[in-house]
Design brief:
- The chain has about 325 residues and is mostly helical.
- The protein has 12 helices and 3 strands; from the N terminus they run ααααβββαααααααα.
- Helix 8 packs across helix 12.
- A hairpin with a 2-residue loop joins strand 1 and strand 2.
- The chain folds into 2 domains: about 45 residues, no CATH class; about 240 residues, Vanadium-containing Chloroperoxidase, domain 1, CATH 1.20.144.
């Protein structure tokens, strides 16, 4: 499921699973001009179009254009169930359904100097105040020094930093032994959680509009292109926290009691690597993790039916993903 958000070069391209494969790619092996992708319009193939045209003409010429023996079932006479609908829709369509459910009724406001995200009932989902390093020159200098000090880890972590520019699905797959065929809905659930993460974190970043470390000193010299949006809170830390929290609940103890701790350690390391890279302050990571955990609670309140039959697109996805474990 590809999500409608740009990757921004470093905050991560949510939803590029890379392991689910493209919808309907099975059977598209072979000639590029005659596979399913060409039939779906993803590739231009005049040869296939002409082949389909002549085949249709030969197969139906005895009918002289008349429709015979059609299936007359309609959505009124035999409505599709939720499961049937979700099974028929493409990942892109399902992503739009999930996005609508996740964001319907959300509001963002400022109260008492605090930025808040609220649900449709005006319950506060998450609250963040301005980072301490923005409150004085001394605090900012100390925060910048912290970034400089973390640069000592770059040689050890450079491979991690570069391969975690996009959402680090492979690192979570390493912990969970995620398999492309066996865990398709788990990947889709992860990608869906990141829809919420991406939308919410950008609201806070836009409000606080915090400049990056390299905007303050030429000594920072990040090993990645500095993202073109605010530093606070950290998007990678938010992503890691929402994924680790959701996956802990989804998988439970099926992989052993060490899973929650390992997921949390991984999520924190991914966020911390952004400080090592020179594109975030340490406080950005703390705030991103706080936001991610709060968003995870909201996400699961909508998605997890708690054993009841699924009554929404999100709940269908949760039930399907949980069944994989």
């Amino acid at each position: 499921m590809r999500l409608p958000f740009a990757s921004e070069g470093s905050e991560g391209s949510e939803g590029s699973e890379g392991s689910e494969g493209s919808e309907g790619s099975e059977g598209s092996e072979g000639s590029e001009g005659s596979g399913i992708k060409a039939y779906a319009g993803e590739r231009i193939s005049a040869l296939l179009a002409n082949g389909l045209l002549t085949t249709q003409g030969e197969l139906t010429r005895a009918y002289f254009g008349a429709i015979t023996n059609p299936d007359t079932t309609t959505s009124l006479t035999a409505p599709l169930t939720l499961a049937q609908r979700m099974g028929r829709w493409s990942r892109q369509v399902r992503a739009q359904l999930y996005t609508f459910e996740l964001t319907s009724g959300l509001t963002f406001n400022i109260a008492g100097g605090q930025a808040r995200l609220l649900d449709r009932a005006n319950n506060v989902i998450a609250t963040l105040g301005a980072p301490a390093y923005e409150t004085s020159a001394a605090n900012l200098t100390a925060a910048l020094q912290g970034v400089m000090d973390m640069a000592a880890l770059r040689a050890d972590r450079l491979s991690e930093i570069l391969t975690q520019v996009a959402v680090p699905y492979s690192y979570f797959a390493m912990l969970l032994n995620l398999q492309p065929g066996r865990h398709r809905r788990t990947y889709e659930l992860m990608s869906t959680a990141l829809i919420l993460s991406g939308i919410a974190v950008m609201q806070f970043k836009h409000h606080f509009a915090v400049r990056r470390p390299a905007d303050h000193s030429p000594l920072i010299q990040p090993v990645l292109l500095t993202p073109n949006h605010g530093a606070y809170p950290a998007g990678h830390a938010c992503q890691g926290a929402i994924l680790s929290t959701v996956l802990t609940t989804l998988v439970g103890n099926r992989l052993g009691a060490e899973l929650p701790n390992q997921l949390n350690l991984l999520a924190h390391r991914v966020g911390e690597n952004r400080v090592v890279a020179g594109v975030h302050y340490e406080e950005d990571i703390t705030a991103g993790e706080q936001l991610g955990r709060a968003l995870a609670a909201y996400f699961m309140a909508l998605a997890n039916p708690g054993g009841a039959p699924a009554a929404s697109a999100l709940q269908w996805l949760w039930v399907e993903a949980q069944a994989e474990w």
